[in-house]
Amino acid sequence: MIRSIPGFVLLVLVLPVHAVDLDWLPGHWCNPNGEELWLPERGGLMPGLSRSEYGGRTHFEFLRIETDGDGTRYVAQPGGRPPTVFELAVSGANSAEFRNPEHDFPKRIRYWRNGDTLHAAIDDGDGGKEMQFAWSRCPIE
What we know:
It is built from no helices and twelve strands. The protein is mostly beta strands and 141 residues long.
């Protein structure tokens, strides 16, 4: 929007309040127990998929990060179950934290990247129970 004030021109740039830069997240990420795949954001949607092996079984989770006029959300569907939504709470140049205080576990999901290593942590929201993960970039085979 451009407004004129006698002798001045005032330019107001309107940006989405909830815009978040997650360009550091897309890619295929692997560790010895599994992998996570994130596609680049397009149209406010960044789809993801997680597959891991533990306890003698293979587990999967549909993931997505969606942004609209109401904010940015991380949506998890472990085993294809109904979605659980976590709202973006904090984001930085190479990190993002999502929270859902009403969920049993986890209540907080954090992602951050150091070089070619992607890290994630899920926890109970108050510093008690926590699980951490780390993946390295890998080719899709």
